[in-house]
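Below is how a single chain appears once it has passed through the pipeline. First comes the sequence as given, then the structure the pipeline wrote out for it. We keep one example in the README because the format questions we get most often are answered faster by looking than by reading.
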Amino acid sequence: MLQILLAFIQYLPHYIFLVVIPSIIIGLLEKRLRLIEDSIDHASAYSRFVISSLYFPIFEEILFRGLMFYFFGVPGLILGSITWILLHPAWQLKLYNIADSGMKKLSFFLLRVMYYSLSAIFFGIIWLDGNGVVAVIYHIFHNSLATITEIATEAGWKLPRLHGSRKFVRRVENPVEEFSETRKFIRKVFITEDSSTSNKFVKRKRG
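Resulting structure:
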């Protein structure tokens, strides 16, 4: 356990320079270029956390890097990492509401490929050093941090959004009074005006 902790600390500078900093830079670029309009992921917070923070990291590290490296060596690790890199923007283009522009979709794709390429280098270094368990732990750590941040940000929204706009709901303090006022308004607009119009019509006809 102590060895794993020391190895985790050992790769911390690599994690910062190859994963954290590129993530921040690419996130700012995507925001600046307005590539992502909204997310269409409606899963619960618990479901998203379990899938993103536990299932995906373990599954991806074992399938795309662990097994590929074990059976095919370095070429397998490279091939598995390339597949892992290309799969991410493929499903993210469906998950996120990307601006309806071919150039913006291409920009999103290239930025994501660049980011995941750097991440693949980071995880690949750890696997080549024989520390696959540490790679899995780092993947879990990173996805957990990203998912918690995303969920916390969404929980801080005070107003729900619908198709990019804010939806306001007026609160009714007194339903009885509200109904009474509404009925008076209807009588004033429809009944009174109709009656006056009808009287005018009758008077004109008699005259």
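The chain has two domains: 2-159, 170-207.

See the next section for the split statistics.
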